[in-house]
From TrEMBL:
This is Cation-chloride cotransporter 1. One of its GO terms (molecular function) is potassium:chloride symporter activity. The chain crosses the membrane at residues 73-94, 109-131, 152-173, 213-232, 239-260, 301-322, 334-356, 376-397, 432-450, 456-475, 496-528. It comes from the Eukaryota. GO terms for cellular component: membrane.
């Protein structure tokens, strides 16, 4: 025993490649162990149906590749430095002192805290999602798409791509403006001279010409584009070097803050002064010109909301680390720690800077000196200029490298065919996507106004952040078994708060920009849902639907459904009683009829087909048939599910289905099938027993039954019918026949018809009283119908005469002859045992007088239908249950006589539940 166990176990050295090992594992039902990482059956499923071209990679291959490349970045260089480089940028250098002057110290602190809280909460959500499994290319697009589905992922991903592309233009313009400020002589056109009104400073303020910004911006963008084409590996190696001058310039700025009073005799710079701190505490919102200089005649009025839009790009960039997940040594640890550390560090830097800048200079100096950080820098302003230019160019390079990869990742997922031009093979540069990104960037540079571009960038980034927060909120709230993030410091309420903050900030900035960005995302979502290829990424909505379905199912309970809430759930037999081509999984008119049983398409149908044979032998056939049937249901626009059952016979298959199909109160309540009109023509002797058995099983299982005669002539949705829908209401059926007639009227093909209700009464009953009662009942049910009472008299062929009765009489006598012949055969085969016949496997004694009575009654009903309803669009009649002690063959004769010469007939049998109610 011990030796066998040790042989079957996995050896301590972990060897898994030997043929002997694979052979021994056959005992467990697996072919072999996957090299190093796991079971082949698991990876094979992923390869068979990859969620994207990148997802189909074998886990072991990815593992080996990681070992070969040996690219292992830690938290500092892999996450913290890229995030810091992307967060610290142009806004801090050029606009931050101006924001402090405009909003005052108090509201500036609130502004920084508000925006910082938004990105902090987003970082927590990002940390949770990023540590819930391996991340692939696409960054936030990958996270959002896998959590909220391909439609939401692509719509937000494309908006995020636009945001990154436009942000590249923002960084380029910032670098060019800084360069022209530092070297005014480089300007080609005359500089714009802004007169200062209403301030203490008398000298004019110069700002670069917009044409210079456009020309230099286009040149810089083209140069950066060439650098990107030159190779991303070099950019990634050089990128950290861009951060060193930035940090050094920050160091010089803070030294300059403390030494400002001695080293800066410039007007307006007071040094760290309590008086300046008090003067600058409150806000001073006012009009400015396009250059941001205070001007009572300016076009732009600034308030807190507008400053949120201007400042928010200064806190973006938290996704930079997650985009490098493939190069990290420990993704599960580095992304949360690095991203949150960068977010907290920059937020603390901004808060401290607000206090220092507010105490450093007068408000006029803060509002008019756009490069105050360079003015106060120690030992000379050039350090800050170099820091600004390098930081903005580095950030622009990151945008021009990250945005094309984001677009290529969306294209590679093959959701939108229109994006196939931007696809890039693994390991290849996305050149076309890079050119497209550069084109967008140049278009934004031509606009030339920084303050017009920043709100656009802000909207797209906020849209992406809200998507990340909503993804974490949904996953955390559903708490599916696969939701096991290593980052434990998260909660769905924090994610919901983060998403709400993102939306609030969007509307604070500009409701018009918000509406435009949401409309753009909605249009992309709608376009993807129509034109996109379906992809099952295991998104959170699938889990939400599942849990919602479970809760709804439990809330329905197992009690009887109230008639007001009753919906038909038909169980439709797709291929009984008649041959269909192999490539047609369901009779087309059955699908049309199923739609007629729903009001405005609401409701669920279960399409069932039974395969004869052994389940072990035909399991694969059943899967293929189920897939084919499901595709056909979608093609016919039927809301329903496909089920294929393998059974030794149709009768046994149906008996299993009628007992087990469905869950709780979502079990099918109506069995729909075609009437077997071909049984006598093709001499199918097994049909009567199967047909009667199915009806009896439905009665025992308390299912309603609808049998369609004349299915081939049933109209589709485009064939308009005229005339009447005639109901022969014989027995109480819970109102099912009435309800079916009303559902037919809701369809275009039957909406021009009128309903006639024929009440079959006994000859000695009060017909007028019955008619009054039925009319009152229909009025209370809100149903419009003409009521006709027909009295059934004893059958008398001589008295009735006429061609209709002649047709019925001929069918009647033919049925009599066949039944007599059947009885003679059975008597001769019973070897002298008398009138003993078998019905449903049991011996029965046939009462020939009762058989004659059933034939008479059926004939009379058929004659009545032919007399009143020969021109009806459709006739509904109560389905008589199979009589006890009558062989199945006899019941088929009764049914044939009932449907004789009626072109389109529905035989309806209700069940012991009301499906309509008088009460509101």
């Amino acid at each position: 025993m011990h030796s066998n166990a040790s042989e079957g176990g996995i050896p301590a050295n972990g060897g898994v490649n030997g043929s002997e090992r694979e052979h021994k594992l056959e005992l467990f039902g697996f072919d072999s162990l996957v090299n190093i990482l796991g079971l082949k059956s698991m990876t094979a499923e992923q390869v068979a149906a990859p969620s994207s071209p990148r997802d189909g990679e074998d886990g072991s291959i990815a593992y080996e590749r990681a070992r070969v490349n040996d690219v292992k970045l830690g938290t500092m260089m892999g996450v913290f430095v890229p995030c810091l480089q992307n967060i610290l940028g142009i806004i801090y250098y050029i606009r931050f002192t101006w924001i402090v002057g405009m909003a005052g110290i108090g509201e500036s602190l609130l502004l920084v805290a508000f925006c910082g809280l938004c990105t902090f909460l987003t970082s927590i959500s990002l940390s949770a999602i990023a540590t819930n499994g391996a991340m692939k290319g696409g960054g936030p697009y990958y996270l959002i798409g896998r959590a909220l589905g391909p439609e939401v992922g692509v719509s937000i991903g494309l908006c995020f791509f636009l945001g990154n592309a436009v942000a590249g233009a923002l960084y380029v313009l910032g670098a060019v403006e800084t360069f022209l400020k530092a070297v005014p002589a480089a300007g080609i056109f005359r500089e714009t001279v802004t007169k200062v009104n209403g301030t203490m400073i008398s000298e004019p303020i110069e700002s670069p010409s917009s044409h210079d910004l456009q020309i230099y911006g286009i040149v810089v963008t083209v140069i950066l584009c060439f650098i990107v084409f030159g190779g991303v590996k070099m950019i990634n190696r050089v990128a950290p070097a861009f951060l060193i001058p930035v940090l050094f310039s920050l160091f010089c700025i803070f030294i300059g803050v403390f030494a400002a009073r001695k080293n800066n005799p410039t007007t307006g710079i007071t040094g760290l002064s309590l008086e300046s701190f008090k003067d600058n505490w409150s806000s001073d919102y006012q009009f400015t010109n396009d250059a941001g200089v205070p001007d009572p005649e300016g076009k732009t009025y600034w308030n807190f909301n507008a400053l949120v839009g201007l400042f928010f790009p200064a806190v973006t960039g938290i996704m930079a680390g997650s985009n490098r997940s493939a190069s990290l040594k420990d993704t599960q640890r580095s992304i949360p720690v690095g991203t949150l550390a960068a977010t907290l560090t920059t937020t603390a830097l901004y808060l401290i800077s607000v206090l220092f800048f507010g105490a450093l200079a007068t408000r006029d100096k803060l509002l008019t000196d756009r490069l105050l950080t360079a003015t106060i820098a120690w030992p000379f302003p050039a350090i800050v200029y170099i820091g600004i230019i390098l930081s903005t160019l580095g950030a622009a390079l990151q945008s021009l490298t990250g945005a094309p990869r984001l677009l290529a990742a969306i294209a590679n997922d093959d959701i939108l065919p229109v994006l196939n031009y931007f696809r890039a093979a693994d390991g290849h540069e996305p050149h076309i996507a890079t050119l497209f990104t550069a084109f967008i960037c140049i278009c934004c540079v031509v606009i030339g106004n920084l303050d017009l571009i920043t709100p656009t960038v802000t909207m797209f980034f906020l849209l992406c952040y809200s998507g990340v927060n909503l993804s974490c909120f949904l996953l955390d709230l559903l708490d599916a078994p696969s939701w096991r993030p290593r980052w434990k410091f998260h909660h769905w309420s924090l994610s919901l708060l983060g998403a709400s903050l993102c939306v609030v900030i969007m509307f604070l900035i500009s409701w018009s920009f918000t509406v435009v960005s949401l409309a753009l995302a909605s249009l992309i979502y709608y376009y993807v849902s129509i034109k996109g290829k379906a992809g099952d990424w295991g998104d959170g909505f699938k889990s939400a639907y599942f849990q919602l379905a479970l809760r709804s199912l439990r809330s329905l309970g197992a009690n009887q459904v109230h008639p007001k809430n009753w919906y038909p759930i038909p169980l439709i037999f797709c291929r009984p009683w008649g041959k269909l081509p192999e490539n047609v999984p369901c009779h087309p008119k059955l699908a049309d009829f199923a739609n007629c049983m729903k009001k405005k398409g609401r409701g669920m149908s279960i399409f069932v087909s039974i395969l004869d044979g052994d389940y072990h032998e035909r399991a694969e056939d059943a899967k293929a048939a189920c897939k084919q049937l499901g595709t056909y249901i979608d093609y016919k626009n039927c809301e329903g599910v496909a089920e294929i059952v393998v059974a030794p016979s149709m009768f046994e298959g149906f008996r299993g289905i009628v007992q087990t199909m469905g869950l709780g109160n979502l079990k099918p309540n109506i069995v729909v099938m075609r009437y077997p009109e071909i049984w006598r023509r093709e001499n199918l002797t097994e049909i009567p027993a199967t047909f009667v058995g199915i009806i009896n099983d439905c009665i025992v299982a308390n299912k309603a039954v609808v049998i369609v005669k004349g299915l081939d002539e049933w109209p589709n949705e485009y064939q308009r019918q005229y005339g009447t829908i005639d109901l022969y209401w014989i027995v109480r059926d819970g109102g099912l026949m009435l309800l079916l007639s009303q559902l037919l009227l809701t369809k275009e093909s039957f909406e021009s018809c009128k309903i006639q209700v024929f009440c079959i009464a006994e000859e000695d009953s009060d017909a007028e009283e019955l008619k009054t009662d039925v009319k009152k009942f229909l009025y209370d049910l809100r149903m419009q119908a003409e009521v006709i009472v027909v009295s059934m008299r004893s059958w008398d062929a001589q008295a009735e005469g006429g061609s209709q009765q002649d047709e019925s009489l001929e069918a009647f006598t033919a049925a009599q002859r066949r039944i007599a012949s059947y009885l003679t055969e059975m008597k001769s085969g019973a070897e002298g045992e008398g009138n003993v016949l078998m019905a449903d496997g049991k011996p029965v004694v046939v009462n020939e007088q009762q058989v004659e009575k059933f034939l008479f009654t059926t004939l009379k009903l058929n004659s009545t239908i032919l007399r009143y309803s020969r021109m009806a669009a459709v006739v509904l009649v109560s389905l008589p249950p199979p009589p006890v002690n009558h062989p199945a063959y006899f019941y088929m004769e009764y049914m044939d006589l009932l449907v004789e010469n009626v072109p389109r007939l529905l035989m309806v049998r209700g069940y012991r539940r009301d499906v309509v109610t008088l009460f509101t």
